[in-house]
Amino acid sequence: MKLKKILLLVFFTNILLNASTIFTLSGVKKVYLVVEISGKTIPKSYKSMIMESLQTMTDDLNIDIKGYDPRSLAVLVNETPINGSTMVNIQLLIGEEVKRLDNHEKTFALTYQDMGHFVLKDGNDPEDAFEDTFDTMLLKFSEQYLEENKKISKVVINEENFASEMHYETNYDEAVKKSKKLQKNIMLVLVSNFCPWCRKFEQRVLLKNEINEIVQKNYIPLILNKEKDPFPKEFDTGFTPIIHFIDHQTQKSYKNVIGYNNKDEFTYILRSDNVAK
């Protein structure tokens, strides 16, 4: 009996540590989003950031989140004190009603579970560690979802294939030639290696259809990595991401936007540019 209990404990521990290997995301087409934060380390204001990330991911995966649904996709955040530091725990869950096999009785169960955590010393800012951990969990969820729903999924756009899939130029001189020929200004997006805000700007803003429609209609979009791609150094301010709007006649930047802007903010920036009105 004791051996049986030990084996069961090992089994359920393995379940918790390797959730994606036993839970399936096949056929998950609609969810209700829930975010809960407990403890003092992670500000309650993070709820809006978490919700925005969930909305972006579900939109990319074509998962409906409109209205209420008995199936919930939840993010639960709590903390555990450890020797003067704090362990922040993040859970990404799907909970829904299921039927028992033997008597068909309805019961609530977790049908997906993943956990991430990081240790934070007292007084340190949790933002970077939280976002890195959470983004890794969302990526893991997305990859499993796409693998299990191949027939209904679309192409995954990442750092490697962003330019080709979104029809961005990747050569400055070629973009200038095209700009002169079509008499359209250039929208230059400068990124760099190991820049999480660059990746977020690509995924959460530039990938959006309404943004891309404005960009493609009014500009020659160009994306360059400042650490490996050649371009006039006058456009390098030391910050990434940075977006330059470059006049097609003078090849001078007449407006630049430094840092991450969310979809609504960047839409306003685009529409405030005379050429995009």
Please estimate the helix content.
25-40%
Mean pLDDT: 86
- Describe the strand arrangement of the main beta sheet, using strand numbers: 1-2-3-4
Q: Roughly how many Å apart are the termini?
A: 74 Å
Strand content: 25-35%
Question: What is the β-strand count?
Answer: 8
The arrangement of helices and strands along the chain is HHEHEEEHHHEHHEEEH
Total individual domains: 2
Coarse morphology: globular
Q: How is the biggest beta sheet arranged?
A: 4 strands, mixed
Low-confidence stretches: 1-21
Determine Rg (CA atoms, Å). 23 Å
Could you please describe the fold and organization of this structure?
It is a single chain. This protein has 277 residues and is of the alpha/beta class. The protein has 2 domains: 2-148; 162-276, Glutaredoxin (3-Layer(aba) Sandwich). It has 9 helices and 8 strands. The protein has helices at 2-17, 19-22, 46-60, 127-148, 162-166, 172-182, 196-206, 209-218, 263-272; strands at residues 32-37, 72-82, 85-99, 106-121, 185-191, 219-225, 242-246, 253-258. Strands 1-2-3-4 form a 4-stranded mixed sheet. Strand 2 (72-82) and strand 3 (85-99) form a beta hairpin. Helix 3 (46-60) runs parallel beside helix 4 and helix 8 packs parallel to helix 9. It is globular and about 75 Å long. It starts with a helix and ends in a 5-residue tail after the last helix. The relative contact order is 0.10. Mean pLDDT is 86; it is low at 1-21.
In short:
With 277 residues, this protein is an alpha/beta fold.
List the topology elements.
Blueprint: H1 2-17, H2 19-22, E1 32-37, H3 46-60, E2 72-82, E3 85-99, E4 106-121, H4 127-148, H5 162-166, H6 172-182, E5 185-191, H7 196-206, H8 209-218, E6 219-225, E7 242-246, E8 253-258, H9 263-272
Parallel strand pairs: 1-2, 5-6
Antiparallel strand pairs: 2-3, 3-4, 5-7, 7-8
Helix pairs in contact: 3-4, 8-9
